[in-house]
Amino acid sequence: MNMLARSALYWRTARYLKPRQVAHQILHRLRSHHFAPPSMSALKARTTSRAAQFKTAPLLDKDDPWSFRFLNIERTFADGSIDWISGELPKLWRYNLHYFDYLLDSNRSAVERAQIVDHWILQNPPGTQDAWEPYTASLRIVNWIKYFLSAAAPSAAVSPHWIESLAAQCAWLRRNIEYHLLANHLFKNAKALLFAGAFFEGSAADEWLQKGSEILSEQLVEQFLSDGGHYERSPMYHAIMVEDLLDVIALDRAVPNVISATVLGSLKRQAIPALAFLRDLTLPDGEIALFNDSARGIAASTQSLFAYAARLLGTKPICCRAEGELIDRPASGYFGWCGPADGWLIDCGSVGPDYQPGHTHCDTLSYELLFDGRRIVTDTGVYDYEPGERRQRSRGTAGHNTVMVDGAEQSEIWGVFRVARRARAIEARVASHKGRVSFAGAHDGYCRLPGSVIHRRTAEYAPNRSLQISDELLGDGFHVMENRVHIARGLHLSRHGGVLEVRDDASVLVALLNVGKGSSIYIESAEQYPGFGRAERIDVLRLRSEGVLPLRQQYSIRRA
Question: Is it the case that residue 240 has pLDDT exceeding 90?
Answer without folding.
Answer: yes
